[in-house]
Each structure stands twice: as C-alpha cells, then as structure tokens.
Design brief:
By secondary structure, the chain is mainly α. The protein has twelve helices and two strands, in the order βααααααααααβαα. The chain has one domain: Heme oxygenase-like (Heme Oxygenase, Chain A, Up-down Bundle), CATH 1.20.910. Helix 1 packs parallel to helix 11, helix 4 packs antiparallel against helix 6 and helix 4 packs parallel to helix 7. Belongs to the heme oxygenase family.
C-alpha cells in the first residue's frame, strides 16, 4: 500500500510526456547526502507559500483528501483486509520502491536530490524483500504473485522515465512516499498486524519500520527543511507539485488493480460496489 504524505506533524490520516528543461541549481555542498542532524538542531521556519514544502502540502491537498476518504480506506482502517490482498500490496510496493530507489541511487549527486538522499534511513526495498520472504516464502522471487500488475508497471515506467530524463521530478515521488511512510504508515502497521494476526515482533511488516530514525516527527521536519533549500525556479517547483499529484493518481490506479483481483477471485463481489471502494492508498503498504 501507499501511505499518504502527511499534511501536519499531528495528522495521522492517509491520503499513499514531454519534459521541458529543468531550472535547478543545487546546494548539495552545504547539505551532504544522508547527513544526520541532532534533534535539538531542528528549527521551524515561518511558513512561506513559495517554499517547496508548503507548495507540496497545499498543492496536493485535494489528492490527499480523495485518497483518505474512500470507502476502501475506511474499510482498511477497520481491518477489512485479507492475507491475499496484503500479499498483492507488498508485491506492488516492492516493484515501486525498487524502481524509485534505483533512480534515486543513480541520481544521488543531482543538485535537486542530494539534500534528500537518505538511503540508510529511508530506503524500503530491502525491508520489503524481508516481508515477501515471510509472506510468500524464501523462493518469493519465483512465486506466481511476484509480478507487477499493468498499473504497477506504468508507475514503474514513469519512475524510470523521470530518473532518466528529468531527475528533479523524483523529488515529488520521494516526498509522497517517504513522508507518508513516516506518518500514516505507522498506524497501518498496527492495523495489518491486528487484522492478519502477524507476529508482534514485526515479521511481514518490516516495511513500516525505520530503525535508523529515532524521531519520525523530527526527521520529517528535517526533510521539509531540505526541500526548501533546493535551488529551484518557480516553474520547476510547480512541476514537482504536479508530479506529486500524478503520484497520487498512479497509486489510485494500482489500487484499482487490487479491486479487479478481488473480483476475479470472488465472482460474488459486485464490480459497482468494488469500484466505489477504490483508494489510492494501497500502494503505501506501499505507504508514502
């Protein structure tokens, strides 16, 4: 599933082409990749509507609202999730994060991405691999479920296209996924463990664990401050917001795939009822 990028530190709700020339000039020398600041050094800047973090927060508000208010998400939070559905979610997450993190690694020195590159703290691919080994068995790579749906494949192709041609837009995808993982994802972890009776020790839900981050709120504050020092022109900031909304749409399409899978496996499920339950969040188990 996808968790939703948070819209405030206290909000635990879930939300989960041609490319013109980029206007990006970085400040990566002052902000080394993966550098850790002590929690006491975080400062809260005055909100500025021209800052990228504020533009993303308000520019994705409608998408966030659509995602968190679907019947599907409400059902998920009530624990209405089968093991088979969760396995499908974990597989989708694997392909999405593998693609995104491959492109982040390739472009780690790009001036728009270097300040946001925290592989030790944030990368999810290895954790999802552990989850899949638990959920599908040690030979999970050969399991019939381990293949991307058409919607997941389109999402993956977009991530690779952006990484190849306009890496600055990866900022949007990293923002929408990782900040959600650090907020709403923590609630979803407990829901999944309870609904599927998974071990309290964390097997099957390692995706949600960030052992290298002691304070989720503090790290999110750091991440937002890094967003605001990336030297981007107004056009590129607006395009990053547009790409973040596109990421929400990709997640909704991936979620439709879960619904179609349920219909295929249960002919008693009515398509009209199922599509009223579609949510863009499932790939935040796949959470952002």
């Amino acid at each position: 599933m996808q968790s939703f990028a948070e819209h405030s530190d206290d909000d635990l709700s879930f939300p989960s082409q041609s490319m013109p020339t980029m206007g990006t000039h970085g400040k990566s020398d002052e902000l080394g990749r993966g550098a850790k600041e002590k929690s006491g050094s975080y400062s809260t800047p005055i909100a500025d509507a021209s800052e990228l973090s504020e533009m993303l927060k308000f520019g994705t508000k409608e998408s966030h609202s659509k995602a968190e208010n679907t019947n599907f998400m409400k059902g998920f939070l009530r624990g209405e999730l089968s093991m088979d559905e969760f396995k499908c979610v974990a597989v989708a997450l694997y392909f999405i994060y593998a693609a995104m993190e491959e492109e982040l690694d390739k472009n780690q020195d790009h001036p728009a991405l270097a300040p946001l590159y925290f592989p030790t703290e944030l990368h999810r691919k290895n954790a999802i691999e552990e989850d899949l080994a638990f959920l599908l068995g040690p030979e999970w790579r050969q399991h019939p479920k381990t293949r991307p749906s058409p919607a997941t494949q389109r999402y993956v192709e977009r991530l690779h296209a952006v990484g190849r041609t306009e890496p600055a837009l990866l900022v949007a995808h990293a923002y929408t996924r990782y900040l959600g993982d650090l907020s709403g994802g923590q609630v979803l972890k407990k829901v999944v463990q309870r609904a599927l009776k998974l071990p309290a020790s964390g097997e099957g839900v390692e995706f949600f664990s960030f052992p290298q981050i002691s304070s989720h709120a503090g790290f999110k504050q750091l991440y937002r401050s890094r967003l605001n020092v990336i030297d981007l022109d107004k056009e590129m900031r607006e395009r990053i917001v547009e790409e973040a909304n596109r990421a929400f749409n990709f997640n909704m399409e991936v979620s439709k795939g879960y619904i179609l899978n349920k219909i295929d496996n249960n002919p008693n499920v009515k398509m009209s009822e199922s599509f009223s339950n579609i949510s863009s969040t499932v790939p935040r188990l796949i959470i952002r």
